Amino acid sequence: MFRRTLLTSTAALALLLPLATACGGDAEAESSSGLSSVTLAVGATGWKNEEAVLKFAHLDDTPYKVKWSLFQGGDQQLQAVRAGALDLASSSEIPPIFAAADGSPNFKVVAVQRGTTLNQEVIVPKGSKVTDIAGLKGKKVGYVQNTTAHYFLYELLQRAGLKWSDIDAKPLLPNDGLAALNGGGIDAFASYGTSVITAHQQGAVTVGSGKDVLSGNFLWSARDNVLKSAGRRAAAADLIARITKAYAYIRDGREHEFAKVVAKATHQPVAQAEKDFRDAQAQRPTQARTVGDDTIASQQKVADAFTELGALKGKLDVKSFWSRALDTDLEKAL
């Protein structure tokens, strides 16, 4: 069984807080020495696939420094941004909503990365009598709180005629949820990415999918100090654009070779890793775009759903924490 030691929320912040000084204070002036003096502390979820993609495409030799840190979810990345320990976070639409819910976020959503919504599923263990979402009524269901899993589980329950209160919902981190599913502590688990892949390797069965529930918009959130420096803005835009170019490089006939990298990291057979990658890119090629009214409206719809669920105390105006400050640099970099 694939296991990787990931930073939990508390441990992540404890380890990353010393980096806050290296990330630069809010009053940091733009350096006259150019990008070589810039260091970006950047979050990653899963197995640092963004870093691996850049390295595979020979685009990791940036003119600025990048310090990658690994988290189990985008929610933890946003917590690190709020703590001043990350400059740039990648997540689904959900984590910035909760990170901004207190009304005083220290970040802005500055770009959107279109991506696959595959491997976002509600799964049950092998031999379970539950065959669909309706069968979850009265069951213990794990989910990754304040993430895509939280949202698509809620939406799937509604579509099946169930309320959130109809299940015994248990917030769990991906690794903990997988262990609970295998150990009989929960009857089903709503999760994403590597945890879903690993669960299927262990015989888990899909009873619901977020594929057609989620928008495919994954957000880049930058700490406010990044936007105050022309050098940091240029570095952030360049990094985001490089990831887009790296995926295009892989799609240009290099899927099999990259699948070997993925398989080594996730302990999948190479053939399965290649199929998953091809399926993901066929559904929605990974590529960045600038902020648009449609992307803001998409997140507003999600925020309103969490208000209805009672996870947010009141209506949240999401456009208050979006910014087009990176648009010009990103358009040039792309």
Automatic annotation (TrEMBL):
Q: Which residues form the signal peptide?
A: 1-22
- Ranges for domain Solute-binding protein family 3/N-terminal come to 39-251
| Top-level taxon in the UniProt lineage | Bacteria
Annotated segments matching region Disordered: 276-295
Signal as a keyword? yes
Write down what this protein is called. Sulfonate transport system substrate-binding protein
Keywords annotated in UniProt: Signal
**Is Zinc-finger included in the keywords of this UniProt record?**
no
Q: Which SUPFAM superfamilies match?
A: Periplasmic binding protein-like II (SSF53850)
